[in-house]
Amino acid sequence: MELQPQVIFSKAGASIDTTTIMESTETLNDPVKAVVLSSSLLTERIFLYSSFLEALKARVKADLWTTSAKNLHIDQQALSSEMTVDSFPAVKPFKQFPYTYLRRLNEYVWDYRLKPPSRMGMIKEIRDRNTRFHIRTLYAPARILAALRMEQVLEDWLEEFLLTYPRSPESKLRLESNPPDVVLSTGSFRFEEPAVAAEARKLNIPTLAFITSWDNPSTKNRMVYKYDGYLVWSEIMKQDMHHFFKESREVPVYITGAPQFDVFFQQRFYESREDFCARNQLSPDKPFILYALGSPNLFLEEASIYYLAKRVAEGELGDVQLLIRPHPLHDKGLDAGIFKQLGPRIIIQDNGQGGLSVPTRAQTEQNIHDWVNTFRHCALLVNLSSTAAIDAAIFDKPIINLDYDPEPGQSRQRLVKEINHTWTHFKPVVDSGGMLLVNDDAEMVEAVKAYLLNPGLHREERRRMAEMVCGFLDGRCGERMVDAILEFVEMKKKRKNKHSLPTN
Hints:
Number of strands: 13
Strand content: 5-15%
Mean pLDDT: 91
Structural class: alpha/beta
Oligomer: single chain
CATH class of the largest domain: Alpha Beta
CATH topology of the largest domain: Rossmann fold
Strand order of the largest sheet: 3-2-1-4-5-6-7
CATH superfamily of the largest domain: Glycogen Phosphorylase B
């Protein structure tokens, strides 16, 4: 039987008024013009492969500005007449002094004021060890400003100051020559996109920010620029935005679900187990364990993967295979040579991105096929506190989560514990009961054995976990993004027209 994810609708409901959308689109003579910014394959795949593109139809004319050289050569006919693809405008960094110094000061003030577990954990385990002395001198004034509750005053002033620095003159020229109704940023925490959003702000072009992932509000550096509206996955993310970015309480926050998971519900990306296994050098008649790596910038997982791989190769877990899936944004963190020596039961999946810088990477339809069917056909998932746990839960696959630092010496053992048990975004997932936490390599192997014998264990908890994180699981989140854009633009136009009416 071909496995499909369970369709789940958010109990919280959406914040998008579809009645208003239907009425408003009737008043628009021309399609809404939107500039969509993309600086990561993790968001770009939303526009190319989710329900977003189909929902555009004649309602929105979108121009995708992308950093991906690969997608600059995409077949325009394969997209639609509603979306064009252009290169991302040139962007230059802020000068170190005073701009970057002030940005760091602002981040530290907010950290000391809100004390988010994720940010404070990173300060103790990583930032304090790697930060240069001249930056650490900002800690003392940051503590003072936080104690005085000056964080919002500082950030408001800093935003106006940063807007005076022209990071992207090219984007200004483009926006002036063909002004859109809205600029949608999908990387408001990254390097490139805030530069364009700043130019839009100065030109009074409305801006929307799609918050890329469930961990962004509580773990990323500050979004210094304010946006006129936000798109989030779920009610939990909306509340996180209200807590960490108070200005979001005063503007629309649209709950759309997680549009990158729309592809999990599209039959066109499904392939038989036989075809998938043939492409990935797996035997279709044997179950395969999936180990999905997180970012090697945070943890090095090779030692635990090798421990598991060796036992799979020796037959300790039965007649099974191991598929190792690298993070789509990273090549490092794994020595393929030592795994090849273990024999044909151990396979490392090729993501086709080797050697490319992170902003220039892209995912082809074949990459999407691999992603979807890897989770459809695996027997279970092993990972270390990554979003891959949600991928597996959507397809009702058992999840084993490491609760220990797999690197020899365990220098970041405390950080692993903090992520799993205190971090704002991940603690609720652990507490849901939808995954098994293991404390060492031996427990990991025993958990694998248990789930191979009883894959239905924790099924209901997995379902609730996926629903909690994603908000909607029905394959229509891309449509909701388009609906949100339309509702937002119509709202802005009505306000503009109201203010332009003559008064007696």
